[in-house]
Amino acid sequence: MFAEIRVALHVQRAVAHSRRFKGEQNPPKPLMVRDILYCATMGGATCAGLADKVGSLTPGKEADVLVIRADDINLYASNNAIGSVVQAAERSNVETVIIGGRVRKYGGRVVDLDMGRVKALVEESRSQPICGRQLSSRHFCRAAAEVVVALFGATRRALTCGRNFNPDPIRIADADQSGSGPVA
Which residue in 23, 33, 45, 163 has a CA-CA distance of 20 to 30 Å to 172? Predict the structure, then answer.
């Protein structure tokens, strides 16, 4: 989520500055790091319709807490905690995660995770038909890419106010024509 926060900050600032440089009379103001942190926490909860349950540390809400080590080299000696989280933090800085009052990560390590079960579930998901076709593991990533492109295209259409946008999606059938063999 840290990378997504940074991307949102930089994309919004780039768009705001571009519109200002093009001479737009009322361009949006560039967001500040505090605004982006709000979007990732309370704003996200509001958009998801969960503001009454999560998004802030308030009595009666579920306790979802992320504790970040501030003494790691990429965050050390900062005089702006919010700026450090938004512009420099990464998953390796996460010390503890508490979700719904339950500790899920402690000391930088995930607790109560059965990696064998996770791997088994991944392998099982690979054997499931996608779009009505059984895929080998080498074609699994291509099918996943098709799904991501389809999602991106739908999102892009929504962001462009309904204008037709087609990002030239990868089709599973393309794997048959790529010379890499049949999709099986």
Answer: 163
CATH of domain 2-110: 2.30.40
Instruction: Name the pTM for this structure.
Output: 0.60
Model confidence over 116-173: pLDDT tens digits?
A: 887 777 777 777 666 666 655 555 555 454 444 444 433 333 333 333 333 333 333 3
In the chain, domain spans: 2-110, 115-177
Both tokens of 61, joined, read 């809400």
- Gap between the Cα atoms of 128 and 125, Å rounded: 5
Distance in angstroms (rounded) separating the CA atoms of residues 67 and 164: 43
Q: How is the beta sheet containing 94-99 ordered, strand by strand?
A: 65-68, 94-99, 102-106, 109-110
Cα separation, 92 vs 182, whole angstroms: 40
